[in-house]
Structure prediction request, 429 residues.
Amino acid sequence: MEGWERSRSLYERALKLFPGGVNSPVRALVEPHPFYVERGEGAYLYTVDGAKLLDMVLGYGPLILGHRHPKVMEAIVDALERGWLYGAPSEAEVRLAEKILGYVKPGGMVRFVNSGTEATMTAIRLARGYTGRRLIVKFDGCYHGSHDSVLVAAGSAAGELGVPASEGVPREVAGLTLVARYNDLESVDRLFERHGDDIAAVIVEPVAANMGVVPPVKGFLEGLRRVTRERGALLIFDEVVTGFRIAMGGAQEYYGVDADIVTLGKVVGGGLPIGVVVAEKRIMERLAPSGKVFNAGTFNAHPLAMAAGLATIEVLEREGLSKASKFMGAVAEVLAEEAGRLGIPHVVNRVESMAQIFFTERGSVENAEDARSSDQRLYKALHREMLKEGVFIAPSQMEALFSSNAHGDGEAELFAEAYRRALRRAAGR
Ligand SMILES: Cc1ncc(COP(=O)(O)O)c(C=O)c1O
Prediction:
């Protein structure tokens, strides 16, 4: 892009160093090529080319307080000055675990790992160990990280057995993952009818944030709770995105449905690498060293991530989540309004500080098929035009837009003006 010469030249070097030029695929989707970041501040990113971008991606969710929040920085620096890796416990992990449990599972227990991927991998192993069963159910379009069991999309409608979404995942492994349709309890019931006694867990994003944003329809989460309880399977809420974002207690609190195991990540690490498995004591005690389900990690409960997570939650306790949420409310209105004005059929889904627009004639977007049927080319064009206007929205229709407490009225105005111009150009009007 014009003015992105330094980013362009770094990307050319990166193409020789990293597959596809990046270290996580979604970053390569930024058009016309990734921009390289020099620094972040509040609601903005500053690129090596000198561009200032309003950030609606926020590291794909973690930065609920925006970039470089002074309290979080202070906590990281304070921890850093005392050392940054001990191979032994530190006080911060006790304090952060107590804090998390207070909101997510009072009386429960925690295992800290280093990413959402590790959290869901551990949760699934724990569910299998606890129930002594083999199969898991996931939903088409839900993303739970990049380990084998969850890299499975919907197979042929007839089979309903998982088909790998990645080369390198053996069919035998993928076959242990059954795929149901999001927001469709009947598709879950059918799997339980056929495989009920062998299903260890149902894992779900209680608000799907990896097919754009798709909220649960009324009764869906409650239905999952009922069927898993009846059939002796565990319910895993993957709250890597929703935890401490849609409510301090995540989707469990927001929708009033309790899961057996909750996985967290993103916000609870304040922007440093983290994953968390949370469950009641009877389940968590199955993890090594108190139990025989194995998990370990050189970097588990990393002191810097503990410090950043704790500081983030403490700031949220003072500030609440409503600022980020109010901002996204304004954004959602503008997204719909301008599309409406231009006569572009659309659906805007929003839950608190996360939202996405789908350009579709379907009246609602409730599952992956609805999301995929939307005009993704128009979304891509919008992403490109928004960048030209100085606003960074997720480069893929399947990602969410996020806001933070650093996004205020000025940013809402900036977003609205940019979007009005960008959408018109993207749609060729
Ligand atoms: C719902 C959900 N679960 C798990 C993950 C994996 O987390 P990580 O990228 O930290 O491994 C993600 C990542 O985006 C996610 O959105």
